[in-house]
Amino acid sequence: PPPPALLPPPPPPPPAVLPSFFLSCRHTTRRAVCHLLFGRTEVIDNTLNPDFVRKYILDYFFEEKQNLRFDVYDIDSKSPDLAKHDFLGQVYCTLGEIVGSPDCATMKFCANKLDKKDFFGKSDPFMVFYRSNEDGTFTICHKTEVVKNTLNPLWQPFSIPVRALCNGDYDRHDFIGEFTTSYKELCRGQNQHNVYEVVNVKKKIKKKRYINSGTVSMLSFSVESEHTFLDYIKGGTQIHFTVAIDFTASNGNPSQSTSLHYMNPYQMNAYAMALKAVGEIIQDYDSDKMFPALGFGAKLPPDGRVSHEFPLNGNIENPYCNGMEGILEAYHQSLKTVQLYGPTNFAPIVNHVARYAAAVQDGSQYFVLLIITDGVISDMAQTKEAIVNAAKLPMSIIIVGVGQAEFDAMVELDGDDIRISSRGKLAERDIVQFVPFRDYMDRTGNHVLSMARLAKDVLAEIPDQLILYMKSRGIKPCSPPPAYSPDHDHPQTTPI
């Protein structure tokens, strides 16, 4: 090696931009408890609902209890000293809790002869389940529905992760009584051991002849393994990705820099960024990496016919593109051949993918449609009907809004708050996720970070949507193929 004097000077340290949250791991030894700082996230400016992107890789050991602590700070300067920033709070958990048991317990309870609490009626009873903590405190893990005006309520069955049994609503109510049990006792199911006396301690002290305030009986208890998204992927379920791009005139002339379709030689436009951000993640779950790419709202050569489901590669018989690069290439080429027009119709695209999804409902395939658009939807009623019909199929829809338009109508399609309906018929499940891309643009112009945030948010609901479809149809994941093992009855050949 060269002598020290000839070595280049070290690079200047990076600017000390402090994140608003950091992760540490606590290691317990025989002598002391030490904390190892794993890292700090990026800063999310001016929000009470931060969505962090930075990831951490931790070694997981089944046989060890690995304690984690998350500290949250409000950052007001670039000082790396945490003491100079506002500490918001912290949470503890174990790595095992994060990757832990997917088992889910389903149970059903009723009660008999509860105390009367209402002056003009009986009682409106509900039951709250608390999990006992190691420090002697209790944490709410489930609350049943209220059954009105009865002393003999029958509550609906409910499911709860087993790990939640073995934070809460503390609103004031009239206290009837309490009892304690254990997971081991609950596992016995309906029998004499799972009939509990509901006791009000204060009432018991005041009344010498007090026995109880009624009884609660378990009617059923079952535990089943909850299948995960990864279980289906490992079992062979393929994710089929289709992209649909808005070619309406409201995007502006692609040859002008003000257009959302403008091809800047130095950076991708919003359409390309949204496509690449989502597609590069989904493509890993499709074995052949061949994806249909469609456009809508354009006039097509040679006759100027308006189409709302045309292939970007110009091949009606085979609209598939090879990977993300193939889709981007077809998108770029189509801008040179079609005329941006309108209106902004979604229903033809949704129905197009739904036809393919309807043909394969055995759990072997799941379809994800990405629609990238700049404007207000023109066929709202038809699109709602198409989505309600598609909700019964192995299909999810992602809508990314680009540009500065108002997207109020798009929010209506996203059924997070109010389930979408058409002609009085509710969608069987929520399959639409809408986000405006402008909400994810990094203020420093870091497009990689913008794309990572977008992908993280729009893809977050896909696993649960897939699982809900499979569960509603009673489809269990296939067993993954066995690992290859050589046939010991035959000699192996070694390639030269």
From TrEMBL:
One of its GO terms (molecular function) is metal ion binding. The keyword DNA repair does not apply. GO terms for biological process: cellular response to calcium ion. It comes from the Eukaryota. Residues 240-466 form the VWFA domain. Residues 1-108 form the C2 domain. InterPro entries: C2_dom, C2_domain_sf, C2B_Copine, Copine, Copine_C, VWF_A, vWFA_dom_sf. One of its GO terms (cellular component) is plasma membrane. Keywords: Repeat. PANTHER family: COPINE (PTHR10857), COPINE-5 (PTHR10857:SF51). Belongs to the copine family. This is Copine Va. It comes from Gadus morhua (Atlantic cod).
